[in-house]
Amino acid sequence: MRIRRMVAITVDPTLSPKVAKHCSQQPRVVTQEIHGLIRVYKDGHVERPQIVPCVTSNMLAPELGITSYDIVIDKVTAIWARFYVPNSSGNKLPLLVYFHGGGFCVGSAAWSCYHDFLARLAAKAGCIIMSVNYRLAPENPLPAAYDDGIKALMWVKQQATYSTRELWSSKCDFSNMFLAGDSAGANIAYNVVMRLNSSMALGGIILIQPFFGGDARTHSEKYMVQPPHSALSLETSDTYWRLSLPSGSNRDHPWCNPTAKGINKMEEMKKLSLPIMMCVSELDILKDRNLELCNALAMSGRKVECLMSKGVGHAFQVLSKSQISQTRANEMISHVKAFINR
After folding, report:
1. Which residues are CB-neighbours of 259 under 8 A, at least 6 positions away?
2. Do 117 and 60 meet the contact criterion of CB atoms below 8 Å apart?
3. Is 123 helix (H, G, I), strand (E, B) or coil?
4. What CA–CA distance (Å, rounded) separates 325 from 321?
5. How far is CA 16 from CA 107, 239, 285, in A?
6. End-to-end alpha-carbon separation of the chain, Å?
7. How far from chain centre, in Å, is Cα 176?
8. What is the pLDDT of residues 293-317, one digit of tens each?
9. Pairing mode, if any, of strands 304-309 and 46-47?
10. pLDDT tens-digit profile of 154-163?
11. Which end of the chain is more exposed for a tag (fewer CB within 10 A), N or C?
12. Is residue 96 classed as helix, strand or coil in its secondary structure?
């Protein structure tokens, strides 16, 4: 292991989760809550305050040289994706299929923080990005997000088979495709690859601060001191897992803890027969768990490149505007560019 310092649409309001209004006068019991992000009631009602604004695809800085638009992937499940296509390149470009974070329970491909980051990534790395908006828990617990990831890839495969007039597909090198995601999105990318058969060829997988857990706490989970408004604390992590895992599961479920005892780690990880890039943040409570997965993958014979971002925490590349976060985000983008263009 090596460690280094297609009909276009505009986002419809129905595509992003909104706060539902409830007119009942009866008091309601909250069973799970992450302040400012999600509130789940005993009767099953779910509220998601819009703590992060959703933006339309055309809200981009002109100097990026990116065209962005949305396409519905599946009308039945309301899966859609936002595309980012560099304008200038005359060559066919790699395709990066990306899954956003949010603990499987919140987040959107239309969130402004992801829109800004992925537009910048597409411009600087010289790739087309397909940002998938998948179904959320607890209304759609796992494996719904994994199913949506597979469905999105099958849709891409169909676009490659049949000629379309879409801008993204006309510029896309379908033989050079990668899966990527951050936090819960990286977990989705990992588990989607585990489910794929050999009919879908991939150039690699990029896991940015992948969201995994376990019943036993790691050192960084127990002792890493987080700022008051950190993107991920141990309490919020536990709540996300309670809301997203199948009923009756604990945090040693394979979807949550791929290195848990009783799981044949080597045999499972041999399915990842493709290059892997892991991005770890030094101040992230998930740091130890991410490094443990890196080591397990390397021991199983996988080719793993691990990038450690110093002085930053979980999801810094999308949620922090500090100078050090911007510097580390640019470093991450440079490594992603090298990884997909090798």
Report:
1. 214, 265, 292, 293, 296
2. no
3. helix
4. 6
5. 9, 22, 29
6. 17
7. 19
8. 999 998 888 889 999 999 999 999 9
9. unpaired
10. 999 999 988 6
11. C
12. strand
In the numeric block, which tokens belong to residue 268?
């499972």
Residue 44 is given by DSSP the state S
Tokens of 2: 């090596």
Considering just the CA atoms, what is the radius of gyration of the chain in Å?
A: 19
**Residues with catalytic roles:** 183
The pair phi, psi for residue 149, each rounded to 5°, is -65, -45
Q: State whether residue 175 is helix, strand or coil.
A: strand
Other CB atoms closer than 10 Å to residue 34's CB: what's the count?
Answer: 19
In terms of C-beta density within 10 A (0-12 exposed, 13-18 middle, 19 or more buried), how is residue 256 classed? buried
Separation of CA 184 from chain center: 5
Q: In Å, how far are 120, 209, 222, 332 from 306, measured between CA atoms?
A: 22, 11, 23, 11
Specify whether the CB–CB gap between 171 and 92 falls below 8 A.
yes
Least confident stretch, 62-66, 117-121, 224-228, 265-269:
265-269
Q: pLDDT digits over 124-172, tens only? A: 999 999 999 999 999 999 999 999 999 999 999 999 988 677 899 999 9
Q: Rounded CA gap, 137 and 142, in Å?
A: 7
pTM of the model: 0.91
